[in-house]
Write a structure and sequence with these properties.
The protein is α+β, with helices and mostly antiparallel strands and about 220 residues long. The protein folds into three domains: about 80 residues, Winged helix-like DNA-binding domain superfamily/Winged helix DNA-binding domain (Arc Repressor Mutant, subunit A); about 70 residues, Arc Repressor Mutant, subunit A; about 45 residues. It contains eleven helices and eight strands. The strands form three sheets. The protein has a three-stranded antiparallel β-sheet with strand order 1-3-2. A hairpin with a 7-residue loop joins β2 and β3. α1 packs across α3, α2 packs across α3 and α10 crosses α11. The mean pLDDT is about 90.
Length: about 220
């Protein structure tokens, strides 16, 4: 048996004894350098945890994923969709009506409020204020519109439509600044015209009237 294949088999034997390893103890158990273990993991096929700062490894043949693509072993969580941000994006894309931070945390078996706040500020996810908490929506525009329509009526009612006067100012600012994001339009309206409106209300207005907005740079 070639040496590399023998090393892969040794790696698999260790994972048969313990389903999750951190890289340094795994390298020590194999008696080789960390860089060599990383190469063997790539050959065998592996996953990194989305909890514990990605420090835990397992072979991709080991997890018995749930319906969301999540596997938890001794409080170490793995996802077939990748790291925490990619997994959140996948879950939001697949949700019919969006998910709250609590719902996402229950699915992920891991708190994610801080990550969601960061993603929202970076405009990588959208959110609307629900009856009990914020509801986070897909970053894909068409999916997001379907999710908004599926929200309960009480949640939709909290996003009043733009008045005719505000809509005119929104369009004027957009014509002058077509690359602005929704949030930049909101900031411009507040600073220059004293108008307070939500990014979601502007996006809903564009969608309602079939207006196509150029994607914001870097978003």
């Amino acid at each position: 048996m070639p040496a590399i294949q023998q090393s892969v088999e040794q790696l698999k034997t260790l994972f048969a004894l313990r389903q999750c390893w951190m890289i340094e103890p795994l390298a020590a158990s194999m008696g080789c350098a960390v860089v060599s273990v990383r190469r063997l993991l790539r050959q065998a096929g592996y996953l990194r945890s989305y909890t514990h700062n990605g420090k835990w490894y397992t072979l991709d043949s080991i997890p018995a994923f749930d319906r969301h693509g999540i596997w938890v072993h001794e409080e170490i969580a793995f996802s077939r969709h990748g790291d925490l941000i990619k997994t959140i994006a996948h879950l939001l894309d697949k949700s019919p009506r969006g998910l709250s931070a609590r719902e996402l945390s229950e699915i992920l078996h891991h708190p994610c409020q801080a990550v969601l706040t960061h993603l929202h500020k970076a405009e990588r996810v959208a959110r609307v204020r629900g009856a009990q908490a914020f509801v986070y929506l897909s970053s894909d525009a068409s999916t997001r519109q379907r999710q908004r329509k599926a929200l309960p009526a009480v949640e939709r009612a909290q996003r009043p439509p733009l008045t005719a006067e505000v809509a005119v100012f929104v369009l004027v600012d957009y014509i002058h600044h077509p690359s602005w994001s929704w949030r930049e339009l909101v900031r411009g309206l507040k600073k220059n015209r004293g108008i307070v409106v939500s990014p979601e209300a502007i996006e809903s207005f564009f969608a309602q009237h079939g207006l196509k907005k150029r994607p914001a740079s870097g978003s």
